[in-house]
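Field log, afternoon session.

UNIT: design team B
ACTIVITY: writing a sequence onto a fixed backbone
BACKBONE:
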């Protein structure tokens, strides 16, 4: 039998913790709400303890170890078995899911460590990488709303971008090794120490010499020197530290009785007066020090513990922790001139050094369980002091106080399996009360259960302190995941090697082995889940000296091999026990136990979920399955629950305080519901990508109103209700509004990158997004979350400037698709009138099952029957019904953006005046909420600070709750100073926004409004069958139309440019000239510019006939051009657009276009109306040396173009380029969209009949290294 030593004094101190704890209960007395008010929170504490299980909270609260949470549960609300966390329920997923209110599919942290598709295959990404999070958080939402936010040990707060202004304390940085110095042999050393990355210094004590200023030793003093090795990055931030140790006998009892050790920095020359510690056996002490190099002047610290010192001096062991410094920021501190920069140093220098339990020394067996537990509980010494300093000393008064505690996780990892009798399937656990499974019991179950209980007690005490510091706060308690007992480790790298997919085993998480000759597969794991990533040719960067990645066909075959390798995995030591719970293909991650884990570029190609007692951490080299050296784990399936067998992956959910009901249980709570609910109670807009519900059911249910004095009945109030009570959950109606902008008939999906990789050689892979058949299931999912009703709308331009699949059929397919998608409303934009008002009114409007609205498109002040100024929807009935009115508006310049007769007899008046006039009338009729939506957009600014016509309307709106915009391809979400919620989406269905209104039916007021926007990725989503069939049919019909010859060329017009570059990205090209000429001629602009990356195929038909090329057989010349060939050249559905720019902006565009030369790049410009000369040897950004206009005959002999800001020109281009694509200047909000670009080019060629393009010197390169133009 081998046991980890526990010292009796330490055990006594742990047991003594519990009788001393005093519960606070619900903080403060509840304030009685005013008549008809809905309770809200002025202050919120959001507390989470890592890995805290709801069933264990119940157990320990009942036993008295968690009085604070016991009181909260008694006086508040708790989730039935807590809440469901994201998949996999690990740290990197769970904390962000709580904070963002959305699943990892959207926030992007798919595990503790993961790979980003398109990154170098040798790289990996940590969830704690700054800026890695792709979703907004409750912390950021609160600060935007003007709230004061404090975050202490809430995991990930220091890594979000933009950074928080309030105080943030989040983990610590390490600068050295940790380990033991010992005079006697420890079992398994140094092998275990090397395996777990800790230091084992085996020494012999020698006679102490040369010491001064030390106490008298009554036995011959001994000495040794401790080395604390530098591991800092950069290395200059620290140095190797040396400490002389003086071991002596202080007892003067006539016997050899070594009992103390003095620690002196080596540079002090054995001068005991300079001692930094004097330790008795079992003592801990802290040693502070100054860092060096780039961290000069910064304080750090570490702890030492004298674990062993036998009386005869034969056994000496001293443990030292890593040198560490707290990570802390307070960028918004203004109390003193230097407080923002000094905040971290104040914490590091004035208070105990941040520490926490360290698994590696324990698992390496160089320290005992007592030491591990004591270090873990010392977390409170530092972090409780930090909390008091922030609130009491600095005077910060948080409106939102986020607090975390790590110890519940740390102790569960080490002890859970040691106190659990069986595995999840009832098989005996060989490690139950038997650390080395030798059949002899340790008799330590009560002690180890006490360790876990002490962690839960410290979490409870941390919450108690938070509630003392922020009194009368509404409090939420949760956790990032649950826990299960485990004791076996799966070596994922070995499994892949044995399956023949890797030639060498990789033990480094999320890395490929250097010896692997193919490096085409790797495993990224944490806890019970491993994500397997494949290197796929064309999707992932190549690796020098290694074969190409898997082809598309190989990819599917290899995924099946990976699945088989893990599903067939068995444990020879326990035949028949399942090792793997399930294996999921990437596409199946869209629904894992009701959670959404599918991120397009960050989820594994194959995902493996183990079954307890198996998991993936701490694997042994060379063995597929081995003992894991620790005993608890998370990261399994989110709904893995078997409480009888001590397994529960659910997180905790408790809520209590002034705004929360009493003695209530909620079912089916999810981690994504927490942040939206906190935001609601604070009455701030929620996180901008939140997907969860607002848990209105946790509000108090009010008592019935009391009769007025003297009897009789209470007077009726608003909505016909009785007065005298607050509103409860049943009195609230939550209405959902779904919206897309500028749809432009984008029935088929577009593509978009899902990541923002910037490293050399990386590839931002694009994925399908949007499209009618996929938007509908996304809409349906959000409609399913709507509590009281929903409306789906868009604000105009759903038709016009549409791709061929719609435009070839008169845009009728778009109307039919919108019917199927469930649209209720649409607005009127300029493109609705592209074919003229008569066509729109007579052909399209009758097909629509939704209503068109515009209050400012009228004829003689009257609205025609084909649309209406407004429409009111009624939700519910009787006393709890609500009415929400929608007012449409149109951009006032719409008639100038279409042909002169397109609007016919209709006038477009002031949108703002029309909205306000109708809002006034609707309010007078008693509607409960008003939403104005339509075809105005933001033109400049940012997501949360937009500017432009839409913003001006929102700021001038009266009696309006929400303004939803359209028209400018601009993502916007802002609460304006007048309280109006403003939103707009990117165009073509690549984004959608959900707006939620909560209405109090007792007084008919909107008490809350919030919005969140989302990307409708297609991967893992089943398309709507009816829409898919419709689109497939349209595509089949298009085939015949696309084969029609629309013109001819006297010469072949290839994609390749005049320098022979096959993609046309280094020189002027015939195809580029034709496209640019078509843009300039169509819109009569001064110049035209299009990016070469948008030109994707030869324009003329090939001489070799094919049944799939939309071309007839022919003998040249001439070379026919079909409608289908134009579509192949321009397949992206880009919209021709025009903009007014100055000369300096034109130069910036041209400089960007040639900045990557001589490298072939999609930004290389193709131009019309001008000729540019650049010097390739000059620095990028300063290469353009001459620009002249083209003469009437096309030659480059026109006058010079003024490239200063004082000149103005009109430019035709495409919406991609003018929106900042290919690093061109972003003119969003300034440019005007016109028609679909391929239609513009097709019409131009049709009008020309036969074209004869030529290379004219429109783009000339000078200097050494220029590509050579071939005749």
């Amino acid at each position: 039998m081998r046991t980890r030593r526990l010292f009796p004094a330490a055990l006594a101190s742990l047991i003594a913790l519990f009788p001393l704890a005093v519960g606070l209960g619900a903080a403060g007395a509840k304030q009685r709400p005013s008549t008809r008010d809905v309770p809200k929170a002025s202050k919120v504490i959001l507390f989470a303890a890592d890995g805290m299980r709801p069933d264990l909270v119940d157990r320990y609260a009942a036993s008295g170890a968690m009085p604070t949470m016991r009181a909260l549960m008694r006086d508040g609300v708790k989730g039935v078995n807590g809440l469901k966390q994201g998949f996999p329920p690990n740290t990197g997923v769970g904390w962000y899911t709580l904070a963002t209110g959305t699943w990892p599919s959207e926030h992007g942290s798919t595990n503790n460590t993961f790979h980003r598709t398109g990154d170098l295959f040798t790289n990996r990404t940590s969830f704690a990488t700054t800026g890695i999070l792709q979703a907004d958080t409750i912390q950021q939402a609160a600060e935007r709303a003007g709230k004061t936010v404090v975050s202490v040990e809430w995991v990930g707060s220091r890594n979000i971008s933009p950074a928080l202004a309030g105080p943030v304390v989040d983990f610590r940085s390490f600068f050295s090794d940790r380990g033991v110095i010992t005079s006697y042999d420890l079992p398994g050393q140094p092998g275990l120490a090397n395996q777990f990355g800790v230091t084992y210094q085996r020494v012999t004590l020698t006679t102490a010499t040369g010491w001064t200023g030390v106490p008298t030793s009554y036995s011959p003093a001994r000495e040794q020197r401790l080395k604390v090795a530098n591991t800092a990055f950069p290395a200059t931030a620290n140095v190797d530290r040396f400490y002389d140790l003086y071991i002596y006998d202080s007892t003067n009892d006539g016997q050899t009785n070594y009992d103390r050790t003095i620690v002196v920095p080596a540079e002090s020359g054995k001068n005991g007066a300079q001692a930094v510690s004097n330790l008795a056996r079992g003592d801990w002490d802290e040693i502070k020090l100054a860092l060096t190099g780039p961290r000069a002047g910064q304080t750090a610290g570490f702890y030492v513990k004298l674990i062993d010192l036998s009386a005869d001096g034969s056994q000496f062991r001293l443990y030292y922790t890593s040198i560490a410094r707290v990570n802390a920021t307070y960028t918004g501190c203004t109390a003193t001139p230097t407080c923002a920069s000094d905040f971290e140093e104040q914490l590091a220098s004035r208070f105990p050094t941040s520490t926490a339990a360290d698994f590696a020394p324990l698992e390496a067996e160089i320290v005992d369980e007592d030491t591990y537990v004591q270090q873990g509980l010392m977390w409170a010494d530092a972090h409780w002091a930090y909390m008091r300093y922030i609130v009491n000393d600095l005077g910060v008064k948080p409106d939102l106080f986020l607090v975390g505690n790590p110890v519940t996780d740390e102790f569960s990892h080490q002890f859970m399996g040691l106190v659990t009798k069986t595995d999840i399937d009832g098989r005996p656990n060989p490690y139950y009360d038997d650390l080395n499974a030798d059949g002899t019991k340790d008799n330590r179950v009560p002690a180890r259960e006490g360790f876990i209980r002490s962690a839960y007690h410290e979490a409870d005490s941390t919450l108690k302190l938070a509630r003392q510091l922020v009194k009368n706060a509404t409090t939420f308690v949760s956790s990032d995941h649950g826990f299960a007992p485990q004791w076996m480790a799966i070596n994922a790298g070995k499994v892949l090697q044995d399956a023949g997919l890797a030639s060498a085993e990789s033990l480094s998480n999320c890395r490929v082995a250097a010896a692997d000759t193919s490096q085409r597969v790797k495993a990224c794991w944490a806890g019970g889940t491993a994500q397997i990533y494949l290197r796929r040719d064309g999707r992932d960067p190549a690796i020098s000296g290694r074969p190409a990645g898997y082809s598309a066909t190989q990819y599917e075959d290899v995924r099946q091999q990976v699945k088989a390798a893990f599903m067939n995995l068995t444990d020879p030591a326990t035949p028949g026990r399942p090792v793997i719970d399930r294996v999921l293909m990437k596409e199946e991650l869209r629904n894992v136990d009701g959670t959404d884990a599918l991120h397009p570029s960050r989820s594994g190609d194959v995902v493996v979920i183990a079954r307890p007692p198996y998991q993936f951490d701490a694997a042994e080299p060379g063995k597929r399955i081995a003992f894991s050296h620790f005993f608890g784990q998370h990261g399994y399936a989110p709904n893995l629950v078997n409480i009888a067998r001590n397994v529960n992956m659910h997180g905790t959910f408790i809520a209590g305080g002034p705004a929360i009901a009493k003695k209530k249980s909620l079912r089916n709570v999810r981690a994504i519901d927490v942040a939206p609910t906190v935001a609601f109670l604070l009455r701030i807009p929620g996180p901008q990508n939140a997907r969860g519900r607002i848990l209105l059911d946790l509000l108090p249910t009010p008592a019935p109103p009391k009769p007025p004095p003297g009897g009789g009945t209470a007077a009726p109030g608003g909505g016909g209700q009785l007065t005298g009570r607050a509103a409860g959950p049943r009195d609230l109606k939550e209405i959902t509004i779904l919206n897309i902008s500028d749809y432009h008939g984008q029935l088929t999906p577009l593509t978009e990158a899902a990541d923002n990789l910037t490293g050399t050689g990386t590839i931002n892979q694009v994925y399908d997004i949007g499209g009618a058949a996929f938007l509908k299931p996304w809409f349906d999912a959000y409609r399913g979350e709507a509590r009281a009703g929903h409306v789906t709308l868009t604000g105009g331009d759903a038709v016009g400037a549409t791709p061929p699949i719609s435009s070839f059929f008169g845009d009728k397919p778009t109307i039919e698709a919108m019917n199927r998608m469930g649209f209720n409303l649409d607005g009127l934009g300029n493109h609705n009138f592209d074919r003229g008002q008569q066509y729109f009114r007579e052909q399209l409007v009758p097909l629509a099952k939704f209503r068109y609205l515009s209050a400012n498109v009228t004829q003689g002040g009257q609205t025609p029957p084909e649309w209406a100024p407004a429409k009111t929807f009624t939700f519910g009935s009787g006393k709890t019904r609500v009415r929400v009115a929608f007012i449409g508006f149109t951009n006032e310049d719409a008639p100038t953006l279409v042909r002169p007769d397109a609007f016919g007899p209709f006038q477009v008046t002031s949108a703002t005046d029309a909205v306000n006039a109708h809002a006034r009338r609707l309010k007078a009729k008693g509607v409960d909420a008003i939403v104005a939506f339509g075809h105005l957009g933001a033109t400049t600014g940012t997501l949360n600070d937009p500017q432009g016509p839409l913003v001006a309307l929102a700021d001038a709106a009266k009696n309006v709750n929400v303004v939803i915009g359209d028209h400018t391809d601009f993502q916007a979400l802002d609460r304006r100073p007048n309280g109006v919620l403003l939103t707009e989406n990117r165009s073509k269905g690549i984004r959608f926004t959900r707006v939620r209104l909560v209405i109090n039916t007792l007084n008919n007021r909107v008490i809350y409004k919030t919005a969140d926007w989302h990307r409708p990725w297609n991967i893992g989503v089943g398309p709507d069958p009816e829409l898919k069939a419709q689109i497939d049919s349209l595509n089949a019909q298009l085939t015949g139309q696309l084969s029609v010859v629309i013109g001819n060329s006297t010469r072949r017009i290839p994609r390749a440019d005049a320098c022979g570059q096959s993609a046309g990205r280094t020189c002027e090209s015939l195809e580029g000239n034709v496209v640019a000429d078509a843009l300039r001629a169509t819109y009569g602009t001064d110049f035209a510019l299009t990016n070469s990356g948008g030109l994707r195929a030869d324009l003329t038909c090939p001489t070799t006939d094919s049944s799939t090329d939309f071309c007839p057989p022919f003998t040249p010349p001439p070379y026919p051009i079909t409608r289908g060939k134009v579509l192949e050249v321009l397949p992206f559905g880009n919209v021709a657009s025009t903009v007014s720019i100055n000369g300096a902006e034109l130069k910036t565009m041209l400089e960007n276009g040639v900045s990557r030369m001589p490298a072939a790049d999609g930004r290389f410009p193709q131009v019309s109306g001008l000729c540019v000369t650049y010097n390739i040897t000059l620095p990028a950004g300063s290469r353009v040396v001459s620009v002249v206009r083209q003469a009437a005959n096309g030659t480059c002999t026109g006058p010079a173009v003024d490239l200063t800001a004082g000149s103005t020109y009109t430019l035709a281009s495409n919406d991609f380029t003018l929106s900042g694509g290919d690093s061109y200047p972003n003119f969003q909000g300034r440019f005007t969209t016109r028609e679909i670009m391929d239609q513009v080019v097709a019409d131009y060629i049709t009008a020309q009949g036969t074209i004869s393009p030529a290379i004219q010197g429109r783009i000339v390169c000078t200097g050494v290294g220029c590509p050579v133009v071939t005749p």
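LOG NOTE: Residues 1-35, 712-723 have pLDDT under 50 and may be disordered.
NEXT ACTIVITY: expression trials, pending approval
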